[in-house]
Amino acid sequence: xxxxxxxxxxxxxxxxxxxxxxxxxxxxxxxxxxxxxxxxxxxxxxxxxxxxxxxxxxxxxxxx
Length: 64
What we know:
The chain is an all-beta fold. It is 0% helix and 47% strand. A two-stranded antiparallel ribbon has the order 1-2. It has a two-stranded antiparallel ribbon with strand order 3-4. A hairpin with a 3-residue loop joins strand 3 (40-45) and strand 4. The radius of gyration is 12 Å and the shape is globular.
């Protein structure tokens, strides 16, 4: 397991409520992380900081 950051790009950024957004991400270099819905990861935005994010979606395919 590597603790090095893996760059991802934001594909979509949808506003769900006043304080909730849904992001659809794709790996910048084709390297996907393994996960199960309900897990969380730390997301770092350069210049903005780091926050824990819940993961939801299908780990078998499609956008993360």
